[in-house]
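Hello,

Our lab assistant flagged a job as stuck in the queue for most of the afternoon. It eventually completed. Since we weren't sure the result was trustworthy after the delay, we are filing this so someone can double-check. Below is the sequence as submitted and the structure that was eventually returned. Let us know if re-running is recommended.
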Amino acid sequence: MLVKRTPNRINPDHTRVILLYLTLSSKDRIKHLLTRVTSLSENEVNSVLDEVIESFEGRHPYFKNPLEGFKSGDSYFKKALMKNFERVKGYLKEGSEISENRKHLIGAYFTKEYSVESAALFNPSMVPHPDQSNLDSGALRFIISLRATGEGHISSIEFQTGIVDAANNIHLDERSGYTVTPSKADAGFTKDFIKDRVVHIPGLNPKILESLSEDFTASELSGLIGKMDAGSLEASALNELSDSNYNVRFIHDGPMCERVIFPQAACESMGMEDVRFVRFDDQGISRYYGTYTAYNGHNIKSQLIETDDFTDFKVRSLYGKAINDKGMALFPRKINGKYAMISRQGGEIIRIMYSDDVHFWDHSETLQIPQEYWEFTQIGNCGSPIETEHGWLLLTHAVGPLRKYALSATLLDLENPSKILGSLKEPLLSPNQDEREGYVPNVLYTCGALLHNEEIILPYAMSDISIGFARIALDKLITKLIG
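-- returned structure --
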């Protein structure tokens, strides 16, 4: 059997909620709300806060081990309330004396719960976990990233962990009912970092950089922007650059399945879509890259998320003439000294790109166009190519009549991946009767699989509502591709 579906499932859990700042429509509304809360007596404050704590605190974790600025047993919930109080305290009257309980209560009025999986859970990518210790022989620990979509159809990035044993049985770690979001760090930049990027903005005056030091932080850059004409091209461009290139860090000590990366930048305010993670190896050093589509409700932007440990993340924008569509996926190593990437361009064909810099892509060439009836509408990659002794195995998606999605595969030459060695003439995997109903019917999709013990371990989304798994015999697939 070429493809074997497994019984493993990751289903959405509506109880997985994160804490977000509640944005009000005007400064007046903020001031009015603060006036009402500050008018309460201290006894009323204590009573209302007790009610809030009893109703909500248990839905969020506690810190188990001391971390920076935290103590064992600290309440994640109360820390979030205080953080949101800090965001609005500038609207209080000068000299106001506010008790700790009133600060927490003010924070509660400017906080909301957001169910990250309430609308959809889909489009997984799978990579080896950075920690492979304490495993049985032949087993592999993995991380799966997931696209979770909630209220307002805003997409965020979640994680699931597990183990594939020596017999390729999949064991998913139990997901807790808790979720946490990372803190945004004050990213450090260099003048060259800015120079390399502003050249992609037509009409920008390069003299704006003269007042910058060689090394500076995002907050220092914000200070420079604040001195500019708010409506100028320079202020707008630098603000967008600073906003979309950022760092985040998880300071919660819980399991990885509790971590949620929610949109941080204006360019991704409506979603971080379809991240394709890959473990990238370069001269014995490994790191993880994830390409994703940022969406603000009107425009898309290609972003690259980088991490060594899935605790600290750097988010950087991709630039260049070839960065103009969705579905970017990096090869797991350089090819002939250059980075290589697969992309879907023009909405319907697969192209391949090479670059000396992972953040800049100016040239692309057509790799594959729709040929079979079940892929006439569009084709695209389904994650980073997988290296095998036979060539680069590229999983693809195809769309046919009635917008039915199917998964397929193409084999590329190892030394020259612009050369196709073979592609399937029939779908590798199509939605069956149990997989075709959901948020978006008739869709199977994945953002990345991995090779283990001569099988492709494939997580895939089923009609955008849950995640299934399949095992694909590599030798039989290669025979189908080139036999």
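-- support follow-up --
The delay was a queue issue, not a problem with the job. The result is valid. The first helix runs from residue 27 to 38. The helical segments are 27-38, 42-56, 76-88, 100-109, 191-198, 218-226, 233-244, 474-482.
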